[in-house]
């Protein structure tokens, strides 16, 4: 009596073979977050910056004024933390709005630790 040859399918291999590494813990890795930073300069009007913070970062006037003053005094401040896609969109919106109004306001993003 001879064994019947059997063509192993990919499915058989996955189900039965030790070549599949079992996942011991569920994957809970979250996507990285990005800080959006606003930079100070000597020319952009304070009220324009306040308006940007209200318009693109959903701040009320008092919050926006406070953050604007922080940037003015310290040179830079984090104005929000977002996914990569949302952070890129915010930076683009701010840079485009500043350019259209001919202000040198700079907005950047950096990966959070
Ligand atoms: N320093 C600017 C001024 O005195 C105001 C300013 C604040 C500019 C924040 C940019 O991100 C900024 N008019």
TrEMBL record:
Keywords linked to the UniProt accession: Hydrolase, Protease
Family annotation (InterPro entries): ClpS, ClpS_core, Ribosomal_bL12_C/ClpS-like
Recorded superkingdom: Bacteria
One GO process term, biological-process aspect: protein catabolic process
GO molecular function: peptidase activity
Record region (Disordered): 1-25
Pfam families: ClpS
Record domain Adaptor protein ClpS core: where: 29-108
HAMAP family hit by this protein: ClpS (MF_00302)
Similarity comment: family membership: Belongs to the ClpS family.
Subunit structure: Binds to the N-terminal domain of the chaperone ClpA.
Function: Involved in the modulation of the specificity of the ClpAP-mediated ATP-dependent protein degradation.
Entry protein name: ATP-dependent Clp protease adapter protein ClpS
Source organism: Ruegeria sp. PrR005
Gene expressing this chain: clpS
């Amino acid at each position: 009596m001879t064994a019947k040859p059997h063509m192993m399918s990919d499915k058989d291999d996955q189900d039965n073979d030790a070549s599949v590494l079992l996942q011991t813990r569920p994957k809970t890795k979250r996507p990285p977050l990005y800080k959006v930073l606003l930079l100070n300069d000597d020319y952009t009007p304070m009220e324009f910056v306040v308006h940007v913070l209200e318009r693109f970062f959903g701040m009320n006037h008092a919050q926006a004024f406070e953050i604007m003053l922080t940037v003015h005094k310290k040179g830079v401040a984090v104005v929000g933390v977002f996914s990569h896609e949302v952070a890129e969109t915010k930076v683009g919106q701010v840079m485009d709005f500043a350019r259209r109004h001919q202000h040198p306001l700079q907005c950047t993003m950096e990966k959070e630790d």
